[in-house]
Specification:
Helix content is 21%, strand content 28%. It has three helices and nine strands, in the order βαβαβββαββββ. It has helices at residues 23-40, 56-65, 116-126, and strands at 16-21, 47-52, 71-78, 91-94, 104-112, 132-140, 153-157, 163-164, 180-183. Bound molecules: 1-O-pyrophosphono-5-O-phosphono-alpha-D-ribofuranose (PRP).
């Protein structure tokens, strides 16, 4: 492992196969994404919608790098139930608190895997008639895609492996890791 756990000395070390992206690499890519998004939304006030829980770290870093005015809101959905594979059923646990009709909306995801979650959310939000709807994801595990979802901004394309850290969990743990790592498959 190229990084040690930060602020988590009492936490059991996860069984890591390989660190995919260090904290520094993630921060650098987030800055680049923020630059692109700020340029594309110049003169607009987008609503950034974070998909809980995994997307919160990405949202909080991304919004601090944006140079355009924006609002944020949250949706809580779950399809993995803390495990390693999708249940195939997307559950809405909490809905938005604001009306997005006529607004420029940007969905902020940590990872797109099968695409089922995003496809569901995208259609749900399009039904509320936003002025525009775009998607940014930090990670794109595109070889696992089961539904074709248009993604406007991608941080990193990753291989088909189970990843943890920077918001991504294994049984709700390890979201706090500052890096993104592949877990050992026999962990
Ligand atoms: C993860 C992730 C995405 C979804 C992507 O959420 O945050 O929302 O899975 O997978 P898909 O493309 O196969 O649908 P999860 O259900 O694990 O909830 P969490 O964010 O609370 O960890």
């Amino acid at each position: 492992m190229t990084e040690t756990l930060q602020g988590a000395s009492k936490m059991k070390e996860p069984d890591i196969e390989k660190v995919l992206f260090t904290g520094e690499e993630i921060q650098a890519r987030v800055k680049e994404l923020a630059l692109d998004i700020s340029r594309d939304y110049e003169g607009k006030v987008p609503i950034l919608i974070s998909v809980l829980k995994g997307g919160v770290l990405f949202l909080s870093d991304l919004m601090r790098e944006l140079t355009v005015l924006h609002e944020i809101d949250f949706m809580s959905v779950s399809s993995y139930d803390g495990g390693m594979d999708t249940t195939g059923v997307v559950r809405i646990l909490a809905d938005l608190s604001i009306n997005i009709e006529g607004k420029d909306v940007l969905i902020v995801e940590d990872i797109v895997d099968t695409g089922l979650t995003l496809d569901y959310i995208r259609h749900l939000l399009l039904g509320r008639h936003p002025k525009s709807l775009k998607i940014v994801t930090l990670l794109d595990k595109r070889e696992r895609r089961r539904v074709d979802v248009p993604i406007d901004y991608v941080g990193f394309v990753i291989p088909d492996a189970f990843v943890i850290g920077y918001g991504l969990d294994y049984q709700q743990k390890y979201r706090n890791l500052p890096y993104i790592a592949i877990m050992k498959s026999d962990a």
